[in-house]
Amino acid sequence: MKALVTGGGGFLGRYIVEKLIARRDSVRVLGRNRYPDLERLGVETVQADLRDPSAVTRACEKIDVVFHVAALPAIWGKWQDFYSINVEGTKNVLAGCRTQGVSKLVYTSTPSVVFDQSDLRNIDESYPYPKSYNCYYPATKAMAERLVIAANGRDGLLTTALRPHLVWGPRDNHLIPRVLQRAKAGQLFIVGDGLNKVDITYVENAADAHLQAADHLRAGSLVAGQVYFISQGEPVLLWDFLNQLLERLGIPKVTKAISYRTARSVGAVLEMVYGLFSLSDEPRMTRFLAAQLAKSHYFDISKAKRDFGYEPRISTYEGLNRLVAYLRRHLMGVGCLT
Questions:
Q1: Pairing relationship of beta strands 236-237 and 297-299 according to DSSP bridges
Q2: Which of 137, 202, 228, 298 is catalytic?
């Protein structure tokens, strides 16, 4: 099988690439940078922007399956940036697949596409999209997810979308580093009562799910045209999990707390100020972030288990051990840890 991985040099994308290589699939990566370390493993790299339709189409040439992982994942920014990358970029991938005769597309979505600021407890994939969003990231990811699912069965292309939640693990360059930095600076607060449960996904389990979904994606299969929640299958108390990580790294645990109502109000004010003055930095709080930190959001993954045999191979306990070992090896000398 010849696979194209958009965003293959990123956190999740790189694990998908490595797992494809391990089973001797041929791999091409589309990204904004060159990745010499991947090239040394035999990966073909295409340095291009997802927003360039011609480049994306060329990258899809002689490809059997596309893993569309690349996205702009942030809680703040300009609408046009999110739309051009997450929506227009996905349109370019779909067009490239159709032009080049690609037969399979596995899209990396997010459970945030259905997050409506309420507690989501063990919901399944029938839960509807909200009527509105207060963050451009989930809004544009939902638009892209709809495009991907609507494309299933057209021009010989089969599609499916995975929604891994809060992906974490070694080499994370987004979620965990920010938590550690804010915790060390005393800028991390428990939002709400601290009892909210959330789903998390160890990165190798998320990568496994992508390969399993692709392998089961064929004409007449249950996977074609479907969306799937992906997680560890065992929600954690968010603040207990984060404090356990901090404690093992010798960083003071988070004990200060603010109410959800206060955090949401602060977020609304900061959004207004940052928007008014066109500030490019990310606010320390937004309405979306306040809800994510205070509300429960965990999901029923039985559909993924049934349709393509997904099982979280690496437990949360083992994953945490691996993450702590990695952080101790790689971050002790660069000011991230004490």
A1: unpaired
A2: 137
User: Helix or strand or coil: residue 118?
Assistant: coil
Q: Quote the CA–CA distance of 296 and 278 in Å, as a whole number.
A: 32
| Distance separating alpha carbons of residues 181 and 188, to the nearest angstrom | 9
What number of other Cβ atoms are within 10 A of residue 39's Cβ? 12
Q: What is the 3-state secondary structure (H, E, C) of 276-327?
A: HCCCCCCCCCCHHHHHHHHCCEEECCHHHHHHHCCCCCCCHHHHHHHHHHHH
Question: Helix (H, G, I), strand (E, B), or coil: what is residue 123?
Answer: strand
For the chain, the helix, strand and coil percentages under 3-state DSSP, each to the nearest 5: 45, 15, 40
Active site residue 137: yes
Give yes or no for a contact between 74 and 137, defined as CB atoms under 8 angstroms apart: yes
* H helix or E strand, kind and range, residue 108: strand 104-108
- Write the DSSP symbol of residue 332: G
Distance CA 336, CA 230 (A): 29
How far is Cα 110 from Cα 73, in angstroms, rounded to an integer?
10
By three-state DSSP, how is residue 69 classified?
coil
Overall residue count recorded for the chain in this entry: 338
| Distances 283 to 267, 274, 335 between C-alpha atoms, Å | 8, 7, 23
Q: Which of 74, 289, 70, 112 has the alpha carbon at shortest distance from 199?
A: 112
pTM over 0.85: yes
- Select from 123, 215, 134, 169 the least CA-distant residue to 10: 169
C-alpha count within 13 angstroms, C-beta hemisphere, residue 121 = 6
Q: What does pLDDT average to in each consecutive run of 10 residues of the chain (338 residues)?
A: 97 98 98 94 96 98 98 96 98 98 98 98 98 97 98 97 98 92 93 98 98 97 98 98 96 96 98 92 95 98 98 98 94 51
Helix (H) or strand (E) holding 39: helix 36-39
